[in-house]
From TrEMBL:
Coiled coil: none annotated. Its cofactor is FAD. Its EC number is 1.14.13.-. GO terms for molecular function: oxidoreductase activity. InterPro entries: FAD-binding_MO, FAD/NAD-bd_sf, Flavin_mOase-like. It is an enzyme of class 1 (oxidoreductase). This is NAD(P)/FAD-dependent oxidoreductase. PANTHER family: MONOOXYGENASE, PUTATIVE (AFU_ORTHOLOGUE AFUA_8G02570)-RELATED.
Length: 497
């Protein structure tokens, strides 16, 4: 009779369990709009695939949970910002952050994603082994460094740095007797009622904050170094309202495609006829501002429309605040903060009790993860983007980054379609690896042809794009719809092994 093996001591059992690294088929990094959508599509369309989602924060929702400043909302219409496969359920075109967060979390529950999200898991590194055909992903949880392996790694953490925003150093800020806040870290107890507020900035965050704070504050001043293009769009989609009696399965596609085509056509027109676009925007702006308002100083940028993202305001709320005298715009540069406010280069001093530095975001490419392939560190600026969803030389990796000239989710949905098709192709072939290799004959261009400050500041940290397909980012949904969703997966560039 054989002698039974002795039962390991409790401490030995713990060590053995720790040595067994968990493996999943698909590992998604990020539980925001992109990550939840990614996991939902894999789970619903590729049955039997094991999926886990690692989220660095203690809550889902990404941007829509992190940002808590007054008035936070989408600046894209919700019929294209919502998922194609789970339509936005309301006629509201530009929804506030709370509604968007509820929508994203509802989708997570409906598609059984919520129970697969692991919170407070900060991913720091990912190492690919061609011999093992898998990624080893290192993360920190509860103060300990741990690992998990996966066959496909999906970066869905967006490109914002959640730890810090862009915060220029302002001279004399330590002399200021009031409160300085950054929108990314809005204090829950901030009381600005009856106070003078200065919002520094002219982008989407600033033009959202100003009308949201106006009326409660004594006065809100938007202080900008240079203006942005600001356009009004209805808070409720008029076509959706007219079709309200139709069943959702008939109404939603019509409204969605109306908004897609509007965005594509307007972008192309503004790019091809910038002077016409400038005049159109200026004429609309003049109609919404008081007589004699200096439109050309405060609402006429030096760049062409869509060289930077256009700012949309629901029902002209920013212009209405200006007309009512609750808000004003000052275009100047800051000389220094003073005890009572801000002194400008012109010599004017703006009194303030609260200063909001809506000075922009900071990019963190792919969540700041350190990548390596077969022991060699990956230098992102040496890689080239393929269809703006994979990177050359990095196997079994896809990432989600949305459009800059249209709704983020239009591209996120296409990336999900692509990833699902790749998983299906791998099953059919019995393959365990897919990769794209950089073509030395393809010319290089910046990763994003976009002049917004947060992009320009980070270009040297980002991959490159090419000068022709499939390495070029078209920023055109209709083109991507064909090349990503419908063209053959096996295109001679993407290789399965």
């Amino acid at each position: 009779m054989s002698t039974p093996e002795p039962t390991p001591a409790p401490e030995d059992q713990a060590q053995q369990a720790e040595a067994q690294v968990e493996h999943v088929d698909v590992l998604v990094v990020g539980a925001g709009l992109s990550g939840i959508g990614a996991a939902a599509q894999v789970l619903s369309r590729v049955p039997g695939t094991s999926v886990a989602v690692l989220e660095g924060r203690s809550a889902s929702g990404g941007t829509w949970d992190l940002f808590r400043y007054p008035g936070i909302r989408s600046d894209s219409d919700m019929f294209t910002f919502g998922y194609r496969w789970r339509p936005w359920p309301s006629d509201t075109a530009l929804a506030d952050g709370g509604l968007i967060l509820d929508y994203v979390r509802t989708v997570a529950r409906e598609y059984d994603v919520e129970r697969r999200i692991r919170y407070d898991h900060w991913v720091s590194a990912a190492s690919w082994s061609s011999d093992e055909r898998r990624w080893t992903v290192t993360y920190e949880h509860e103060g300990r460094e741990q690992q998990i392996t996966c066959s496909m790694l999906w970066g869905a953490s967006g490109y914002y740095d959640y730890d810090q925003g862009h915060a220029p150093e302002f001279p004399g800020v330590e002399e200021f007797g009031g409160q300085v806040v950054h929108p990314q870290f809005w204090p829950e107890d901030l009381d600005y009622s009856g106070k003078k507020v200065v919002v520094i900035g002219s982008g989407a965050t600033a033009i959202t904050l100003v009308p949201a704070m106006a009326g409660t504050a004594e006065h809100v001043t938007m202080l900008q170094r240079s203006p942005s293009y600001v356009l009004t769009r209805p808070g409720t989609d008029p076509v959706a309202a007219k079709l309200s009696r139709l069943p959702a399965k008939l109404k939603q596609p019509v409204v969605r495609w109306k908004n897609i085509l509007e965005a594509v056509v307007s972008y192309q027109l503004f790019q091809r006829k910038p002077e016409w676009g400038k005049k159109l925007i200026r004429d609309q702006t003049v109609k919404q501002l008081p007589d004699g308002f200096d439109v050309d100083t405060h609402f006429r940028p030096a760049y062409n429309p869509w060289d930077q993202r256009l700012c949309f305001v629901p029902d002209g709320d920013l212009f209405r605040s200006i007309r009512k005298g609750e808000a004003s715009v000052v275009t100047d540069t800051i000389e220094t903060f003073t005890e009572k406010g801000i002194r400008l280069s012109s010599g004017e001093e703006l009194e303030a009790d609260v200063v909001v530095t809506a000075t922009g975001l900071k990019l963190k490419a792919f969540g700041g993860i350190r990548f390596s392939v077969d022991g060699a560190e990956v230098k992102m600026h040496e890689t080239m983007a393929y269809k703006s969803l994979m990177l050359s030389g990095i196997p079994n990796f896809v990432y989600t980054i949305g459009y800059t000239n249209a709704s983020w989710t239009l591209k996120a949905d296409l990336v999900a379609d692509f990833a699902v098709r790749v998983l299906e192709e791998m099953r059919e072939r019995g393959a365990s690896m897919f990769v794209v290799d950089k073509d030395p004959t393809v010319g290089e261009r910046p990763f994003m042809d976009f002049q917004s400050g947060y992009v320009v500041r980070a270009l040297d940290q980002l991959p490159r794009q090419g000068d022709r397909a499939p390495w070029m980012l078209k920023q055109n949904y209709l083109t991507d719809l064909r090349t990503i969703r419908h063209d053959k997966i096996d295109d001679g560039v993407l290789v399965f092994r």
